[in-house]
Amino acid sequence: MSINHETILYVDLKALENNYNYFKKKLKSDTKIIAVVKAYAYGHGDIRIAKKLSELGVHAFWVADFEEGINLRKSGITMPIIVANPGSKSYNEIIKYNLEPIIYNFRLLDIFGENTSAISVHIKFNTGMNRYGFNADEIDLLVSKLEEYSHLKIESICSHLATSNDKSKDAFTQKQFKKFDIICKTFSKKLNITPKKHILNTAGVLRFPKQQKEMVRLGIGLYGIGGDKKLNPIGKLVSNVAQIRTLKKGEKVGYDSFFVAEKEIKIAIIPLGYADGINRKLGDRKGKVLINNASCSIIGKISMDSFMIDISGTNAKEGDLVTIFSKENLVVTIAKNLNTIAYEILATLNRRIKRVYLN
Fold first, then answer.
1. Which of 28, 255, 317, 336 is catalytic?
2. Is 229 a catalytic residue?
3. pLDDT per residue over 192-210, tens digit each?
4. Between 346 and which of 39, 43, 68, 242 could a Cys-Cys bridge form, CB atoms 3.0 to 4.6 Å apart?
């Protein structure tokens, strides 16, 4: 463990294991888990996360692009790696590193189909999210082309839920389930194949376990976020107090002199800023951090590499540990204060932040 970095994201691999096992108990014994490790494993560090999940028995990994997949392969990951958006120029790398592209339109299908190398692929259908995927009325042409491109091995067919975490929109989610079932039956019958299927994400597994197919995709839930109190956040972001100063009434601090002390206060400067992923909207007392179990408000405007907090009434001193988020100061709460989601907070953490892995 490094002691040379003052800002560290601690990643609890035991908590990751507990979250994984919690989901396993909700699934049938033969349901396979695809672990989503895109965006640097939601900011936690893809290689160490993937290696731990490999030990736990995950079936495959889901990444955003081929470069993320190559990074995992070079680190020694041997499990299937599914590339959500392979792009139109990645064919050689996909083949070289034995990656498995998601095929979601005819342009990609022709790119991979017109090359004769045997390759495992996954076919994605649009069931209502209206993002990536073939539409149901394109099945006949899709089947015709796949019959021509017989060297493409269809490992699975999948779709993406749009509102699985929103109870008020369950009727729409049920429509997606129904549409996906129809598509799967039609597609499989026309091609005379029985590929694996997956549509459930974290919220889907937690709320609609009966809809699990042969596979499920787990992302944010593995990292301890997902609206279930039995999930444990695996990340803890800490820094320290770099400097303390006292502001007299009327004194200003930070860029644009945005904050003006209404009375004498004591402030601390923290060496962490928006370049590290600390959203500027957390300034002006919209965000809080913990020092010695005391909640302290962020004041003024957040700088690129630092921010200031009000430590009046605390016993904080220079060098003290500052917790930006943890089990006690949840990243979900921070996200709500920003009117965003925990995904964004985690995925935008700069890689210059030292990651230290526990357990």
1. 255
2. no
3. 999 999 999 999 999 999 9
4. 43
